[in-house]
Amino acid sequence: MSAVISQGGQEVIGVSRIEGPIVIVEGAANVSYDEVVEIRDSQNRLRRGRVLEVGEKNAVIQVFAGSTGLSIDGTRVRFLGDTLRIPVAEEMLGRVFDGVGNPIDGGPQPLTDKYADVNGQPINPTARVYPRDYIQTGISAIDGMNTLLRGQKLPIFSGAGMPHDQLAAQIVRQATLGAIAGEPPSQAEQFAIVFAAMGVKHDVADFFRRSFMESGALTRVAMFLNLADDPPVERLVTPRAALTLAEYLAYEKGMHVLVILTDMTNYCEALRQISNIRGEVPSRKGYPGYLYSDLASLYERTGRIRTSEGSITQIPILTMPNDDITHPVPDLTGYITEGQITLGRDLDHAGIYPPIAVLPSLSRLMKDGIGSGRTRDDHPHWGGQLYAAYAHMQDVRALASVIGEEELGEVDQKYLKFGRAFEREFVNQSLTENRTIEQTLNIGWKLISMLPKEELTRVSLDEIRQFYKGEDA
Questions:
Q1: Which of 298, 351, 428, 430 is the most buried (most CB within 10 A)?
Q2: Could you tell me what percent of the chain has a pLDDT over 70?
Q3: What φ, ψ does residue 129 adopt, rounded to 5°?
Q4: Using CA atoms in the order 195, 200, 204, 210, what is the torsion angle rounded to 10 degrees?
């Protein structure tokens, strides 16, 4: 093994060890963490990688395309002296790239002299603008109960076999690509979607592509695809490449960008795999101890800043193993993000779409984006009343499963009737139904009016006089 200095960087001939997608190189000097490397096998075929760990005598390198075909003596590694950068340009919208930013749609490499570090730069907290602009998704369970704001990170917690992909596509289609409710976009060029798939099947990627095409949004979408049969190690770069383009479009071009990341569980599995190969001490369920900070490095690349009119709104999608919300991936994601949209298995089995479980779902920024001047004056109290009534109904439903509905009191029976109507008329809506906030609020008042006035403790008397349509109105 020998090290030589060649044009374009330091080159090492021969490696010390190859373990899965990890290559250990000895004899290289002045190597930096996250530095990009070019790796050539004995037949001079090129693949790329990056430095994961640096020691006095060796460097640990992650090979993006895997180490198949590499040999100890016939492998050459050249250190390029820089971090991984991808080209960024508006022309990347309407294009499809692999997980590390190479075009896979048959088109040319983007023509630009602007290259950006995929690791991004942390946003100064004092430069952030607090999200307050409401985004109308047309989905009542989100707009009414878990409102999405521009610049927010709001993940979808789902499970295997549930329609999270359809829900994400519907949000994209009906949110007018991030337009503020009631304010039609003056130009379509102000909005963009960056979609990153990690370890998904081909049919899932094709579903999103068809959905974007049918909604007319395909020309405003940049897709980064790491499919199930692509190298798992590439999944660690895919969301970073996507967010790098999103940052350029939002903060340098002033666009409002919606970023969809699916599936974050596959990303975390790839992170665990690399951690185990490196021999790191595992934490909960075998995931590395730095899983929280790694996820935060992705989720926190979201928001609005004072120096730009643009914004990044992020919707990560993750499937909870065994529907366990305490699993490390949803657990840590919930700590970092500003709430979650949780899909319920029982609602899905009952034929409710979208099967959004209202009680465990949450939007922490909702209170700052609704009410006077944004949605409607009664929205805050209305939401609290609906939530409280539905929560009480769950207790009544549990009691009825023990003693029978006929043994319930009159008020409890009204709560049970309210709960069924809430799931059937409020939560449930078709894939193409795009409700305005007025429609959502009016449906909610219709349901609230099924309860006696004395049960309405969260809304004001003026709101009851204006909107209540019950028997004792």
A1: 298
A2: 95
A3: -105, 130
A4: 30
Domain boundary among 40, 66, 82: 82
- Residue 196 to residue 175: CA distance in whole angstroms: 19
Q: Which of 365, 363, 347 is nearest to 355 (CA)?
A: 347
100 and 126 in one domain? yes
Q: Which of 296, 305, 457 lies closest to 382, judged by CA?
A: 457
Give the whole-angstrom CA distance, residue 366 versus residue 458.
Answer: 17
Q: Which of 46, 119, 51 is nearest to 85 (CA)?
A: 119
Residue range of the domain that includes 394: 379-467
Answer yes or no: is 385 within a domain. yes
pLDDT of residue 176: 54
Residue 134 near residue 181, CB atoms below 8 Å: yes
The mean pLDDT value of the chain amounts to 89
Closest residue by Cα to residue 164 from 330, 298, 13: 330
3-state SS, 366-428, equals HHHCCCCCCCCCCHHHHHHHHHHHHHHHHHHHHHHHHHCHHHCCHHHHHHHHHHHHHHHHHHC
User: Within a 13 Å sphere around the CA of 73, how many CA atoms are in the beta-carbon half?
Assistant: 0
Confidence band of 367 (pLDDT split at 50, 70, 90): very high
Q: What is the pLDDT of residue 6?
A: 45
pLDDT tens digits, 301-312: 999 999 999 999
Specify the 3-state DSSP secondary structure of 286: helix
Rounded Cα–Cα distance for residues 152 and 137 (Å): 14
CA distance linking residue 304 with residue 172, whole number of Å: 19
Beta bridge partners of 19: 22
pLDDT in tens, 314-358: 999 999 999 999 999 999 999 999 999 999 999 999 999 999 999
User: Per the structure block, which two tokens stand in for 410?
Assistant: 């009159």
H/E stretch holding 330:
helix 328-336
Picking from 53, 82, 111, the residue at the C-terminal end of a domain is 82
Share in percent of the chain as helix, strand, coil (round to 5): 35, 25, 40
Q: Is residue 77 part of a domain?
A: yes
Tokens of 418: 């309210």
pLDDT in tens, 95-118: 999 988 889 888 888 878 899 999
Strands (E), 96-243: 96-98, 115-117, 128-129, 134-135, 148-149, 156-158, 191-200, 221-227
Q: For 94, how many CA atoms within 13 A lie in the half-sphere containing its CB?
A: 10
